[in-house]
Sequence to fold (505 residues):
Amino acid sequence: MAKICLCLTGKTLAQNLEVLDKYRKYADMVELRVDCLEADERFVIRRFPEQAGLPVILTIRRRIDGGHFNSGEGARVSILSRGLAFAETDRRRNFAYVDLEEDLEVPGLEEAVRTFGTRIIRSFHDLKGITNVTQRLKAMCRVGDEIVKAAVTPQNMEDVFTLYRAVRRECYGMEKIVLCMGPLGVNTRILAEHMGSCFTYASPLEENYPIAAPGQLDPKDLVENYRFREITAATRIYAVVGYPLKTTFSPRIFNTAFSHEKIDAVYAPFPADNLNTFLSLARELNITGISITIPHKEKIIPHLRKASGAVASSGACNTIRWDGQGWEGINTDARGFSESLLGFMGKKNFRGLKITVLGAGGAARAVVSEIRRLKGKCLILNRNAVRARDLALVHGCKWGELDSQSLDTMERYSDIIVQTTPVGTFPHVDRDPFEPYHFKGHEMVMDLIYNPERTAFLARAQEAGCEVLNGLDMLIRQAKYQYRYFLGRDFPDEIMPRISETPGN
Ligand code: NAP
Fold:
């Protein structure tokens, strides 16, 4: 099973040991990044494996490979030699691994470390792309007892797909580590087993403690949120796809349910600029259930073999599953929205209520169609007025631009205000989607954003005396429908209190 390697990037060995103690239960091994240490600390690393009490990789990463070491190869080999010298027969006191780049030839050192059981990780790093990964990995396998490693940087979903497919087909059975750096590669770190990697690297997300490489996850997140230690190559994958997909709470909902129900499955994020290519990757990885989010909710529809009534009426689809021959889709945002808001208000429908919806994107489509289905009257205001008009025409609503000229109409449609734009979400939490509107206090205000818990828009509404509701309850409700659609069984409601704790960033 793939191991979690905690990357230690502190300036001193003492700082690293402190961090290790905090994260010990989430780590199977550690990587001592000597290039991050202060100069005088680099010469006293020999005892670190014994102090750490876990297998340690000795790594001195050069600047050109994304590290910090810039003192030349002679100095690097000299520090490596000091770290590996005086090997002991008790191997736990030696470095368990040493990371040597593809182009570093130090036969004497390599021979010596092998004698004492230190394993060589032969690595290459590509900070700009994914060129020739499988060929390079095969060429690097010149000595049978080495582990080969490729850390590369995909530029788009096409690169991620190409890499998964090539590595799974051409490097099967090879003892290796292959990972994609940067935000596009987050799933390669979670699905190390599906990539055939023997380790995944993780960095503690601590203030003033540098992350070792872009895209690394916190080890606690890997273990507790993604259940990394239970994932095998046979674990079924469910996915959320969007772009840029910076923060999403859905993995926590699904993975907590999988854990509670003892289902061998993992729900992982797939940032994807290209939906077509992602769907090919989904077939490659046998992903059978997918949550669709910004900006793909409308673009997914032409890919569906079958679509529900809610998809047809809203023109947006947020949930798809593979039926053996093609993709079929539903929209769970619609029910999630109406059940959350009506439940909060203690009402059965929107009859007699005049409602303003801010935004005309994928989420607004579900919101508007649900308001109309449940007899409410609706005004749609959007930055792009044409989009507001197009949506309004489908559902028989009023529409306008999201500017001060719409204020009079909005005041007449102010029983409920539903904010569906991403404005105010983390990290730009100070932003307000419609500052010119002054709340009177009688409005019921719902913001679909749940991160932060209270947006600037909701805070303003609450200060004016309005009842307010964020999007977390809607998210959970719609995810429960997705769960049933994907797995054919009910969501375990008893885990709700655990999930409903405020999501972190
Ligand atoms: P989308 O399809 O990309 O639509 C975004 C909408 O917001 C568009 O109408 C867009 O206007 C508008 N917008 C974007 N940036 C803006 C800005 N700077 N100023 C004014 N308007 C702006 O996204 P979506 O799928 O509808 O999702 C929107 C939000 O709802 C996201 O924050 C998402 O996380 C949240 N959401 C929550 C739930 C839940 O369960 N709680 C479910 C779905 C969505 P233009 O047309 O002018 O570009």
Remarks:
- The first helix runs from residue 13 to 23.
- The mean pLDDT is 95.
- Residues 294-295, 297, 333, 336, 359-364, 382-384, 387, 402, 420-423, 425, 433, 448-450, 471, 474-475, 478 surround NAP (CB under 6 Å).
